[in-house]
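Forgive a beginner's question, but might I ask you for the amino acids of a protein and the tokens describing how it folds?
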Amino acid sequence: MNDMRLDVDTHWEVIGQGDRPAIAIHCMLGSSRMWRPIFEPLGDQLSTTIFDLPGHGKSGAWEGGDPGSYQRLAAQIAGSFIERPVDLIGHSFGAGVALRIAVAAPEAVRSLTLIEPVIFRAIEGTHECDAVRHEQNTLQRLMSAGDWDEAARGFVEKWGLGMAWDDLSQQMRDRFARQMPIVANAAQANFDDPADILRDGGLESIDAPVLLVHGANTDPSVPLVCAELAVRLQDVGTATVPDAGHMMPVTHASTLAELIGMNIERS
């Protein structure tokens, strides 16, 4: 179904009939449908709300905003679905949104699962962060020059399913190119942390069980982000998924369903 949330025509649905409410937040250039193979097996335990971020899937367009403001909007929309403590799950950019909610309102989170978090501010000053920032600067120069296709090619080949840009349909390439302004805005939140998620005492305030998951074949920055977050969390577990890259919700859905199920059992 669709309804207006934070002035955005938002597409959402609920998977499962379990007693526990959950919310899942997808990645950049993804959509809510990626969650179906993960949460359908958990339907007896969870009633999971999945929704399309602005400018994604079947939701309405994103109208733009200040640098980093897209993360705030995404968090506000996700928060609009919370009526009682939830199991909160996020992938990539969505993991940053989920963590922002958990830091702002720890009492609203029953468990937290962060899949491939890209909160690069947590590893600022490292070689891994510098490498990712260099790549982002290259994308930004392409976008500033109006070369949306080439920017989208770089982003998709780096953070997507590993498919060559030329192997994608023209419809998909066009859609990804249109979404690149969203990627640029979201990157500001990943690198600069405008919500001050990493402030002293912020992560430490989360008393719900947290699970940090990354793929064995992901970018080297992501395991480092997971490690830096883990040392500050009260109740945390980590998992490395063999043979998985950044898009493991698509490639390793059954494994993630098992891991999420294990984490919710801890709360």
